[in-house]
Amino acid sequence: MHRIAPLLAVLFVFIAIDARADFINGSFETTVPVVAPGTFHLFSAGDPGVSGWTVLGPGANIAVVNTSFTQSGLSFVAQSGANWVDLTGLDANASEGLSQTVATTVGNSYTLTFWIGNVNSAATGFGVTSTVLVFADVSPLGSFTNSCTTCTTTQNWQMFTSTFIATSTSTTLRFLNGDPANDNDNGLDNVSIVDNGPGTTVPEPSSIVLLGSALLGFITVGRRLRP
Fold first, then answer.
1. Quick check: is 207 in a domain?
2. What domain count does the chain have?
3. Residue 51 near residue 24 (C-beta atoms within 8 A)
4. Would you place residue 95 in the very low, low, confident or very high pLDDT band (cuts 50, 70, 90)?
5. Percent over 90 (pLDDT), the chain
6. Residues facing residue 74 across a β-bridge
7. Domain span holding position 60
8. Which segment, 18-32, 37-51, 209-223, is predicted with the most confidence on average?
């Protein structure tokens, strides 16, 4: 038992590194008012109706869209759950978007995961690509684009990730519309964040599996060597 305990402790550390800390309302299921099936609802800058999020402006709006909403022969399905966010809203595509402040540990590495939705239908006014600009506090994490060309009838979702090092005990993450004024679809859904622990190295899933196999081997050998 004394041989096994330290190895189990190491395994628990690696499991803890992979712990997920989801955003509040990361799939936009909770809104006031509730978004009815087959519809959408607009939220202007400062409107507290998207639970856990701040709508950014000024003078702009975003839309929370139900997964069964259709228009111009297109299906605007969600990536997760019943709702998703259209960052273009119904305005002139200014710097509209959403932000959320999350608790972070100084020096820890965080992996941000989110999905961007796109339809390729310029003739209907919904554009051909979807671009989201992402920031951690004032630092840009990048410009992320879903360039699906085959999604001509149903909204397509693509997953993106970005990693940052926390510099304070809270970090404000912003997701801003990066589409031009003539593009009326820019989807955001299923946003989450993972605390990878101190430093910049994120263990690959395969490495964790190999570590687990090795520890099981040690445990088996330890059992065999017991008198």
1. no
2. 1
3. yes
4. confident
5. 71
6. 71
7. 20-197
8. 37-51
Quote the strand ranges of the chain, DSSP E.
Answer: 20-22, 40-44, 54-56, 61-66, 70-71, 74-75, 83-86, 97-103, 108-118, 130-136, 139-146, 156-165, 170-177, 187-198
DSSP string, 129-151: -EEEEEEETTEEEEEEEE--SS-
Residue 11 lies in a domain: no
Q: Is the pLDDT of residue 47 over 60?
A: yes
Residue for token digits 């809104």?
31
pLDDT tens-digit map of 162-193:
999 999 999 999 999 999 988 999 999 999 99
Question: How many angstroms separate the CA atoms of 100 and 24, rounded?
Answer: 8
Mean of the per-residue pLDDT values of the chain: 84
Look up the pTM and report it.
0.81
Give the CATH number, domain containing residue 61: 2.60.120.260
Examine the pLDDT at 218 and tell me if it is beyond 80.
no
Say if CB 81 and CB 59 are below 8 A apart.
Answer: no
Question: Could you identify the residue written with the tokens 């978007």?
Answer: 97
> What is the C-alpha separation between 226 and 106, in angstroms, rounded?
44
**Is 25 domain-assigned?**
yes
Q: How would DSSP label each residue in 105-127?
A: -TTEEEEEEEEEEE---GGGTS-
